[in-house]
Predict the 3D structure of the following.
Amino acid sequence: QVTLVESGGGLAQAGGSLRLSCVASRSIYAMAWYRQAPGKQRELVAGIAGGDRTNYADSVQGRFTISRDSARNTVYLQMTSLKPEDTAVYYCNAIWANSNYWGQGTQVTVSS
């Protein structure tokens, strides 16, 4: 069983920055951030795996950075140059023992 706890969401102005954190209850090989805007499907934002290999959605490439602190079982999502279209609930995701785990979500709202 894995528990994920997100924090760091909130309100930002366009062009601003926010950093999200996700603390896992155990060490996880592959973690990711997803987001879901109202009326839209949940989409992958960024992922990180072994060797700190990362991947990003085209829409956030160059603006968002995913990283992790393995000693703290924590994954971060640094978001810069925020746009109103980044407004969504952001979810932390972990895959462990062939099961998918999700955090409770944290709201990010970007005003124009």
